[in-house]
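Hey all, quick one. A colleague (J.T.) asked me to put the pyridoxal-5'-phosphate job into the tracker so the inputs and the structure tokens live in one place instead of scattered across chat threads. No bug as far as I know, just bookkeeping. Sequence used:
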Amino acid sequence: MNDLKFILKEKDIPLAWYNVAADLPFELPPPINPGTKKPLQKDDLKAIFPDSLINQEMSTQRWIEIPGAVRDVYRLWRPTPLKRARNLEKFLKTKSRIYYKDESVSPTGSHKTNTAIAQAYYNKKEGITRIATETGAGQWGMALSFACNMFGLGCRVYMVKVSFQQKPFRKTLMHIWNAEVIASPSENTQSGRKILESDPNCQGSLGIAISEAVEEAAQNKNTNYALGSVLNHVLLHQTIIGMETQKQLKMAGEKPDCLIGSVGGGSNFAGLVFPFIKEKIKHPKLKIIAVEPTACPSLTRGEYKYDFGDTASLTPLIKMFTLGHKFIPAGIHAGGLRYHGCSPLVSALADQKLIESKAYPQKQVFEAAVAFARTEGIIPAPETAHAICAAIDAATADKKEKCIVFNFSGHGFLDLSAYDKFLAGDIQDFHLSQEEIAKSLSCLPKL
Ligand SMILES: Cc1ncc(COP(=O)(O)O)c(C=O)c1O
């Protein structure tokens, strides 16, 4: 097959999301209420989430219908294309075939809109008027601002300070979609003030920004919280990516040998690979690779333990691969990958060896990003470039002919200051010592 693009029709947008919890060959450790030390109850989440999302979070039902109003907004950009990176293959002189699912065609430039639209819809339906959230590099903040604007909800975004400074244009886009954007840590919340007291120059982290947004939502009746990754319902909404990919690979006459996604909290990776997990259980030869930065290596160097999802310990305890909730990663340009933990579902699959993980340093990631941009023409987001790095490795590791598919989670048109630095030879790698990791893990809560 010579085609470069595999395009579905609007009628091919899946009618239901796929819930991998229905097909896991093991029991998923439940989230724990840190007060009672007992498994979390639905009521524990009511102060910050709508009922429909709490039900999805705890559901083991295999298929969950996508509401018509959500599918109608999806139709603005979905189905997204599956593309063959033939020029990259030629450049690498590989016999392997490399495909990428292009989620960068969404209005805000990344996969994050798949869940933002769903979350805004359910909150609106249940009478909420405003949503507070965090954002790392700004992709999630933009997606939620866009979604809230679509459904007439207010939106406040706590943006990690280092990204607030590095990526000002994402802020502008959030403003266009009527959101308020605040650099985190901020003076707005108790969690933010406490951090600033001990470190006035703190550059922020996703863990801190989550604390600020959760605190605000918990204290305001009309305000809920929305998370851009990690939680089961967020990963559920992303499975539309993998389901479309399955149809498109059929069109291409392909069966994947290797599936790859970058991992921050785990949502774009899960979106691509969860629909293939049943296949992986039947055919263990299928390789599934989660890719993270060496500066924030939760899957490759963290521990599989119960930990808080945020820095100020406001969230339930979740069992996940973690570097410790107080870990503040170095200010790498892939801001969306600077999270101390990883989703419980992805972590459990890693623990069961159904997926593997790899970490790459920032310079190598940018080399891969620029190779992709020069061959395929699209500028990847630095987060996405981690997946490209692993795809290049998989294609060149040996002489075998393989079908490699990765998730092109977002474009990097608003990450150009990072590319400027790379082209000027000004990109640093950060070494994370075993002592630093051990110190950070020493704050794990005792259960
Ligand atoms: C383009 C892009 N890819 C990947 C990620 C990582 O997040 P997740 O692991 O939830 O997909 C982000 C997070 O902001 C992102 O913006």
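Adding what we noticed when we looked at it: The longest helix spans residues 362-376. Residues 5-9+79-109+233-441 form a domain with the Rossmann fold fold (CATH 3.40.50.1100).
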